[in-house]
Amino acid sequence: MSERKRVWFEENNSRLDPALIEQLRQSERKTYRTARTEKIPIIIRCRKDTANEEMDQLLKQCAEDAHSHLDQEMRLINSVKSQLTPNKIKEIKDHSAVERIYYDRPVSAYLDITNEQIGSAAIRERLQISGAGVTIAVLDTGIHPHEDLTTPGNRIVGFHDVINGESAPYDDNGHGTHCAGDAAGNGAMSNGKYIGPAPEASLVGVKVLDAAGAGSLSSIIQGIEWCVDYKDIHGIDILSLSLGAPAQESFRLDPLSLAVEEAWHSGLIVCAAAGNSGPTPSTIGTPAINPFVITVGAADDQDTLERADDEIAEYSSRGPTIDQFVKPDIYAPGTNIISLLAPGSTTETELADQIIGEHYVQMSGTSMATPICAGVIALMLEANPNLSPNDVKSILQVIGEPVFNHQWGYINAQSAVDAAIRYQKDMKAPVPDTDSA
Questions:
Q1: Candidate list 79, 367, 415, 418, residue with the active-site label
Q2: E strands in 214-265
């Protein structure tokens, strides 16, 4: 029998997530002096029934180390963002207030014919709906006040910057601006050629990723928490998250998954990109692994209006999830999507050969499919404001056209809006009196 002893972080993996264990393992391989003072960004999730005295004692214990410090509380998932040394993590791991400790790991960012191809143009013309009165929060790299969002009136009704603390809308990367246009661009600078499904929807930009399109679990969670706190002030209805990280644990334990689930239960409809790690199976990232939220995969429309030649984009992540759930829940166009360009952004420099004219840029990914889905949902909510998040998801799953040999199908705006209207009529219909039969 081997006499090898397991190191402390391997013995306590029920409270330490796999990513943190790997970080501690790497720290262990370094010199003793470095390992003692190196800070690891973490998220401490506390028990919901933690007494105030226990919590105060934990925070005091964390602050005792000169090389460690606490950053910000994240009430949405009952957690605290921190930077602690390995020794301090070892010291607090068994504290009575601690439920689990996570590595605050990195998270990254993942229309010409699209408007007609998914049926949003036809439904706008037939029913005169365009997302008016509905607000989509785009959690991404920010949002540039592009003319397609500010003409004839400014539809950017709110902005929050987790990364740099700025108050005016901006986007130093460009990914978030493209996503905003995918959902709600009105084609002002293209004579209506490049237009999103919901060109009259309002937008809230939440900058949770930096100029390189990178962030962390905690920055995304802080952005989600802000949306929950300010949803009534800004009238937020939908969250669009074209970002993610590899899923390493069940949706029940993953902190980003837990955050979007709380947002869902607060009444916000959450659309999350499946990821761009296809065609390998079981590559759905977090937060898209959560069974409550609407996970969006990308289709390649082959640049034609006909759907017969459409297929799942090769890059689009496949299910099942780490918990063996069937995902994505719906597919939307995501390949070669032309949308808004943020001038002076990283995108303008790195994708110079994909710029269309002066105001647009072409991108591909589940990042594009997700806000397109959010735009269709805005049309559904304008048609029937009483839809709950669960109602919306159920309708999308039922009306999805089964063209990909997949359990769920391809989004169709006309069918989705018609179903939303029927649902409202059914809810108003009198209930049959079965007792008198």
A1: 367
A2: 214-216, 236-241, 243-244
